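User: For my dataset I need records formatted as: sequence, then structure tokens, nothing else. Please produce one.
Assistant:
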Amino acid sequence: MRTFRFYQVFHGKWFVDLPEWEGDQEDLEMVAGADKMIEKISEGKMEVFIHISDKNFEGADKLVLLRSDPGEGGGYYLLEKYKGRYVMMEMWLCFVTRFVFGKLPQEIFIAKK
């Protein structure tokens, strides 16, 4: 498990703080539903810390890979429930996910710190 910092900048754009990333900063922007998930988890704050793992841990909610896009390197995930409530949030997680995990996990587990 690793804890990531997500922060919001102008116009509601969310980014992950990933110091080891050597690519463009724009690659770290949460888009296509991932931004909506972070917005929900942040509960109106401009910054939030989230525990993330490809292994289940106590108190975690689960993202399930729906389909991958080998051409783009990312995949579409579904967050069915958040804190026990159905949210049915579909989102795109880009190739940075592969960078973080070394693969595109079938399941990703998350929990607000």
